[in-house]
Recover the amino acids of this structure.
């Protein structure tokens, strides 16, 4: 393991030019009507979501009526936890933001867990997410929250994307993922692996190991577990772009929302995350109880599977809170402007080649002394 293994890194970017602000997505502005975007409904997806929700309601009935075994419910919870971690610690913090590095056994494990979640393969998930960060709350954002709760939550998966998503999305560098054999293998085999890992195996395990009724197992361990996990994930795109505090930047839509953080294993500290997307914790406030993904990454780092964890200095956070926060940060009242450090904006958090020379210059990685 490299000498720096397990040690968080600090990214200092003193006067980084803002890509995000270039996109002119001031939250207060109402969405301009865009005649180019006539919704083309994808009925296949609409019907799939109608089935999922009807079947999940039946799954809840089975659970509350005591028809399904306790072991099956417990299994569904553990499975959801693992799949969710594949999304948060894997697709999101590792692959989309490169906020830490992972040895191949951890990458394999995270890719398998991400496949269990069926939120599209890692490559597609990351592409949409990088585009979301780069063009937040514009027409190029796949789940633009300025189109309202329903669109950003689920609606965006039921219509064809705006042309800006394709056009501006094409400017996002994905070469790092193309070099990761685990990501590319998952992409190639997704249509076989995903149905097995997300639906067939979780329905089969309760039947085989403790004799659950196969239909009950299907509805509870597969469908209800999947549907609830989707909603918890989607809340990050919808609720955490609408309701909550903006302690770090009041000018952006993303919010810190503790309830979402709990449901989405630490991804609800979304105002912080949009301001400092390279931080492997995706949060400053809260602890492991509101950030289970950080607990997993720290555990992996302790055992040498994760390393080069990136984070943000307390000073940099303080300066940003003072300059652009909405006053809800617990430090705000005590802190004072010293005028020394004025971070303009984050780098997006991964080592992409489409960063400008100026951005690269300021995205200097500084090692933090640990002990
Ligand atoms: C799901 C994803 O639910 C959820 C993501 C949530 C993200 C949350 C993030 C927050 C942090 C993490 C929180 C985790 C919490 C976890 C807690 C768990 C308990 N850039 O897409 P297509 C191009 S998925 C550049 O088909 P259409 C590209 O060339 C749910 N280019 O567009 C592409 O071709 P290819 C299950 C892009 O036709 C081509 O366009 N899945 C980009 O408009 C066509 O792309 C579903 O429901 C881009 N961003 O269709 C299926 N995008 O791929 C969902 C596209 O060959 N998807 N291009 O390179 C679909 O059916 C379709 O995508 C569609 C749009 C109908 C929505
Ligand atoms: Zn992100
Ligand atoms: Zn967001």
């Amino acid at each position: 393991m490299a000498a720096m293994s397990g040690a968080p890194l600090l990214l200092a970017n003193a006067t980084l030019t803002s890509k995000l602000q270039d996109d002119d997505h001031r939250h207060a502005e109402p969405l301009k009507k865009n005649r180019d975007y006539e919704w083309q409904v994808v009925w296949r997806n609409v019907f799939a979501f109608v089935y999922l929700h009807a079947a999940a309601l039946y799954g809840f009935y089975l659970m509350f009526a005591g028809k399904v075994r306790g072991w099956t419910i417990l299994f569904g919870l553990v499975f959801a936890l693992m799949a969710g971690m594949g999304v948060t610690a894997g697709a999101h913090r590792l692959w989309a933001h490169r906020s830490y590095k992972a040895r191949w056994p951890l990458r394999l494990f995270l890719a398998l867990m991400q496949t269990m979640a069926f939120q599209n393969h890692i490559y597609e998930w990351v592409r949409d997410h990088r585009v979301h960060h780069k063009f937040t709350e514009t027409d190029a954002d796949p789940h633009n929250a300025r189109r309202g709760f329903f669109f950003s939550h689920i609606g965006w998966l039921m219509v064809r994307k705006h042309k800006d998503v394709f056009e501006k999305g094409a400017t996002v560098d994905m070469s790092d993922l193309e070099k990761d054999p685990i990501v590319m293998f998952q992409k190639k085999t997704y249509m076989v692996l995903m149905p097995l890992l997300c639906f067939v195996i979780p329905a089969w395990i309760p039947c085989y190991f403790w004799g659950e009724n196969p239909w009950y197992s299907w509805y509870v361990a597969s469908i209800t577990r999947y549907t609830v996990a989707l909603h918890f994930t989607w809340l990050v795109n919808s609720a955490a772009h609408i309701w909550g505090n903006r302690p770090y930047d009041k000018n952006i839509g993303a919010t810190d929302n503790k309830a979402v953080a709990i449901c989405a294993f630490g991804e609800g500290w979304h105002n912080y995350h949009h301001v400092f997307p390279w931080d492997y914790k995706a949060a400053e406030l809260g602890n492991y109880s509101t950030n289970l993904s950080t607990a997993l990454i720290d555990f992996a780092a302790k055992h040498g599977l994760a390393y080069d964890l990136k984070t943000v200095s307390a000073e940099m956070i303080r300066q940003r809170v003072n300059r652009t926060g909405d006053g809800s940060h617990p430090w705000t009242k005590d802190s004072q402007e010293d005028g020394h450090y004025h971070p303009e904006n984050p780098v997006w958090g991964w080592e992409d080649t489409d960063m400008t020379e100026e951005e690269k210059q300021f995205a200097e990685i500084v090692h933090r002394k640990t002990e």
In short: Confidence is low (pLDDT under 50) at residues 1-31, 333-352, 362-371. The longest strand covers residues 9-12. The beta strands are 9-12, 101-102, 306-307, 310-311, 364-367. The radius of gyration is 21 Å.
